[in-house]
Design brief:
Layout (H helix, E strand, L loop, with lengths): L3 E5 L2 H5 L9 E4 L10 H6 L2 H5 L18 H18 L5 E6 L4 H10 L3 E14 L7 E10 L16 E2 L16 H7 L8 E4 L6 H8 L3 E6 L2 H18 L1
Parallel strand pairs: 1-8, 2-3, 2-7, 4-6, 7-8
Antiparallel strand pairs: 3-5, 4-5
Pfam families: N6_N4_Mtase
Keywords: Methyltransferase, Transferase
Family: Belongs to the N(4)/N(6)-methyltransferase family.
């Protein structure tokens, strides 16, 4: 049975307490600090207003940490990813989600933290917001990096360069920015079999669910009490099912 641990608190604070070289992969979906073209839009709007369609039926709570400007985001993410680099074993991969606004600064941050940037995996969303007079916002992105060289001998997988899936709907949607289970199940394969996956921004636990379902272990950190509770329930449910 795969093991999991979920820490409740600030990622940058708690990452310092974890042992060096203790994880095989980092797969995470940080607050994008995006969704607004101006400082006023970015800092005054709620996360629901930024990332959820106006006709959405759910009433999921907002989350903190989403009002940084580009320089603040670069500095903060470089520190977070620097700690993740310390925790990863040599050759370990990093996957980090971003939207179109944050791809450049996220690539800067991961390289500043020591990771070797390997490319971008587009995430196609069949159900996505329309944009009047322009193109549907049907893609977000996953930046891929490694700690040193790619360790293909330990994990000789051939993964697609594009993943597809729409965010959960109805009762299955438990977080404003929850990623699809089918997308996470594909991405989790970047971690060596039976390895340990770290997610410092656990949210509702989708990375951990994919890790446990695939026989991998999981270490997560989540700032929000509400979402940490949701993640614990989901992780415990997967572990019980696997047993």
């Amino acid at each position: 049975m795969s093991d999991w641990t979920l820490h409740r608190g600030d990622a940058l604070t708690l990452l310092h307490t974890l042992p060096t070289g203790s994880v095989d992969a980092v797969i995470t979906d940080p607050p994008y600090n995006s969704g607004g073209m101006t400082a006023t839009q970015r800092t005054n709007d709620t996360t629901r207003g930024k990332y959820v369609s106006g006709d959405a039926k759910h009433a999921l709570p907002d989350f903190d940490g989403d009002t940084r400007d580009q320089r603040g985001y670069l500095a903060w993410m470089s520190l977070v990813l620097g700690q993740c680099y310390r925790l990863a074993r040599e050759g370990g991969p990093l996957l980090i989600f971003a939207d179109w606004r944050q791809v450049p600064v996220t690539s800067d941050a991961l390289q500043a933290a020591g990771w070797t940037w390997r490319g971008i995996v587009p995430w196609h969303k069949p159900i996505a917001r329309p944009a009047k007079g322009g193109f549907r916002r049907a893609c977000e992105y996953v930046l891929w990096a490694t700690k040193g060289s790619v360790d293909a001998n330990r994990n000789p997988v051939y993964l697609p360069g594009l993943v597809t899936g729409s965010q959960p709907r109805g009762e299955k949607r438990q977080h404003i920015t929850q990623k699809p289970d089918e997308v996470m199940a594909e991405l989790i394969r970047i971690c060596a079999p039976e390895g340990t996956v770290l997610d410092p921004f656990t949210g509702s636990g989708s990375t951990g669910v994919a890790a446990l379902a695939s026989g991998r272990a999981f270490v997560g950190i989540e700032l929000s009490d509400r979402y940490a509770t949701v993640a614990r329930h989901r992780l415990a449910s997967i572990q019980t099912t696997a047993a």
